[in-house]
Design brief:
The chain has seven helices and 14 strands. The protein has 280 residues and is an alpha+beta fold. Strands 1, 2, 3, 4, 5, 6, 7, 8, 9, 10, 11, 12, 13 and 14 form a 14-stranded mixed beta sheet that branches.
Length: 280
């Protein structure tokens, strides 16, 4: 198999592969947005080719996180795809190993992912990734209409700053540039709320999704969601606030895996909210 770099000229090929794997073809504009315009760093995308045909792709997207009290760039393995006709031939594992080698060269030492069952088996088996505490999904059912107090905005301004948490809480640090790229400029529709902090709500099918929240707008997020049922993945240290906002834990959780590329200890409980994932 030939391993090749992704570039703008390969958007159509990747879109076609995605359609073969997942049944839905993203637009080339969506691939440009997600892979090429992340303000932290453009995604690292590798392609696998056999006989001139694109048979697999892997990507690592980047975000800033607080880890053990320090800020660092963390990679998240996303948009993993292997052509159904080429599964079982080691396409994914070879591409992922090559991308992890690239991360070491870039100085990125921590990788995270919320995998599919198929990719989880390879990651934890052949590639040595480790299971971390899962992300518990919470839900809130809106019964009566209520007024949204936070401002609905088209974009976040520079007053939305990085949120550095005290102590060892390990979470994504989102500034205005990242929030606007991820949500305001996304091909999917989100409602952005601003006040003493921010919140972002969207939809997935018939369910509302609280994608990210910080500060006071949390209470308005479920009210502003376009669906009565809203799901979220609250940080463990914020669960009391989510309970007061009407959210309750559900039996569902999302698998979280991690890999340390420099041999250092993995963070004990890194947290991603639903909007930090690539499939919402």
């Amino acid at each position: 198999m030939r391993v090749a770099d992704y570039g703008p000229s390969r958007r159509a090929d990747v879109a076609d592969l995605t359609a073969r794997v997942w049944g839905t073809r993203p637009t080339e504009a969506e691939l440009e947005w997600f892979f090429e315009r992340n303000p932290v760093r453009p995604a690292s995308v590798l392609l696998g080719e056999e006989d001139g045909r694109l048979v697999g792709s892997v990507a690592i997207s980047f975000q800033r996180m607080a880890v053990a009290g320090h800020e660092q760039v963390v990679g998240t393995a996303v948009r993993l795809a292997t052509d159904p006709a080429y599964r079982g031939r080691g396409v994914f594992s070879e591409l992922q190993r090559a991308n992890e080698a690239r991360m070491r060269e870039l100085g990125v030492s921590l990788l995270l992912t919320v995998p599919t069952p198929a990719s989880a088996r390879i990651l934890t088996g052949e590639l040595g990734w480790t299971a971390l505490p899962p992300l518990r999904v919470w839900a809130r059912l809106r019964v009566l209409p209520a007024r949204v107090r936070a401002r609905v905005v088209a974009r976040f301004d520079e007053k939305v700053t990085l949120s550095h948490v005290v102590g060892s809480n390990e979470r994504v640090l989102r500034d205005a540039a990242w929030l606007n790229w991820r949500f305001a400029e996304a091909p999917h529709s989100y409602t952005l709320l601003a006040g003493e902090g921010y919140a972002v709500v969207g939809t997935r099918g018939r369910v509302g999704v609280l994608a990210a929240a910080e500060g006071e707008p949390l209470g308005d997020a479920a009210v502003a969601a376009p669906r009565p049922l809203v799901v979220a993945a609250p940080p463990p240290w914020e669960r009391a606030r989510y309970l007061r906002a009407g959210f309750v834990p559900t039996p569902r959780s999302l698998t979280l895996l991690g890999s340390s590329l420099d041999g250092s200890a993995l963070p004990e409980r890194p947290h991603l909210e639903l909007g930090d994932l690539d499939f919402l």
